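Ligand-bound model needed. nicotinamide-adenine-dinucleotide.
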Amino acid sequence: MGATGTGRLAGKTVVVTGAASGIGAAFAQRFVAEGATCLLADVQDEMGEALARSLGDNAVFHHVDVTREDHVADVVDTACRRFGTLDAMVNNAGLLGATGPIATTPAEDWHRTLAVLLTGVFFGTKHAARVMAPRRAGAILNVASTAGVQGGLGPHAYTAAKHGVVGLTQSVATELRFVGVRANCLAPGAVATPLTALAVTGDPAAVDQVAASMARRSPTGRPPLPDDLAGAATFLISDEAWYINGSVLVADGANEVLQSRAHRQYHDSPPT
Ligand SMILES: NC(=O)c1ccc[n+]([C@@H]2O[C@H](COP(=O)([O-])OP(=O)(O)OC[C@H]3O[C@@H](n4cnc5c(N)ncnc54)[C@H](O)[C@@H]3O)[C@@H](O)[C@H]2O)c1
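Prediction:
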């Protein structure tokens, strides 16, 4: 096994957390298609293993709970042991977490949300830096959200965690620039996945229904899907992005962050 051939990620070893479903699954598929060897890390073993098998020899599933530092350290060490190196770490695992009014948000739900969305990213960033810094090479990509750059676009705990992901990534980028390691954020707007389906309908399986309703509300009539983020992620972890460090790439079709910041949008209807 080992990454061979051509592609924008040819020869690279990449760990993707939350790779069994949604955005992480789309990333793993694209990274392998672009020549990478991919370790798919998730708590959903059956789905993750099935996806890894379908991707062939350059994909392996690894059980990882990102709230467990020993699990995250282990997948990083496994990448180095089996493939000789870790070129990119994509901290993507997530959940919707605590919802509802702040006055009734249980502390336990708050802590669980931050454990996955923020502490999980901390562990991934920490252990990637541990092996990348001595090699003076590597790329860390943390999946934030439009809710990480603008309040009011998600539940409170989710929003707080995603703002934390942006802050952590930018802080770490200023340190790791001295050792040739980059850390960036991708901040997607809503795309149709089980997470969004749960948020919109209460049923994580209602992905097609959510995609159809997104298509109806989309200015282009096209529903944003996980694969629509895969090109941006590929670019950010590729050598083409060597000078991009500490950045937050918003990928929301201008439907969320700009829309919510504008008091009144000048372009508030389609051109005639
Ligand atoms: N779907 C969207 O609209 C959207 C928008 C912006 C940001 N995001 C972010 O993208 C990321 C992926 O979300 P998605 O929409 O693909 O959701 P999803 O539910 O389809 O996938 C999330 C994956 O993370 C895994 N996961 C959850 N907790 C974990 C843990 N403790 N350890 C390891 N894996 C764990 C799940 O098993 C699942 O496979 C999340 O960080 C999410 O916040 C999603």
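The first helix runs from residue 22 to 33.
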